[in-house]
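Write out the bound-state structure for D-ribose.
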Amino acid sequence: MIALGADHGGFGIKEAIRNYFEENKIEYIDLGIYTEESVDYPIFAKKVCEKILDGTARLGILCCGTGIGMSMAANKIRGIRAAALSDSFSCEFTRRHNDANVLCLGGRVISEEKAVELAKIFITTPFEGGRHINRIAMFE
Ligand code: RB5
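---
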């Protein structure tokens, strides 16, 4: 299960990812927003992170204008490792090395196509474990 959340700045790319999940029968929960009305991104960051921490979702994807505000809000929550990024290499390696559990994307930074590409990488790339486990434990 993947938890999705967005504010107005990320609504378009969240919808593109949601449509991809629908078409490919990937299980998700969409925690909003559901329109382009102006909202406060920390509320949606919290909703998505709570679904990861209570075990409902394996991973989360948060979309705002830049991805940065969502990542700042999400990373305040213990147990959340959120990565704001816009390239496929960082996306792959934040799963492999950081075991990131939340991907943060910017609707004013990347295209809908790029957002879907990054979402696919994020949800299919495994954590490598090994030497990275201790490094994560050091900051957790
Ligand atoms: C909203 O205008 C914008 O500030 C928000 O989407 C996000 O980019 C914050 O980091």
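---
The CA atoms of residues 9 and 117 lie 19 Å apart.
The radius of gyration is 14 Å.
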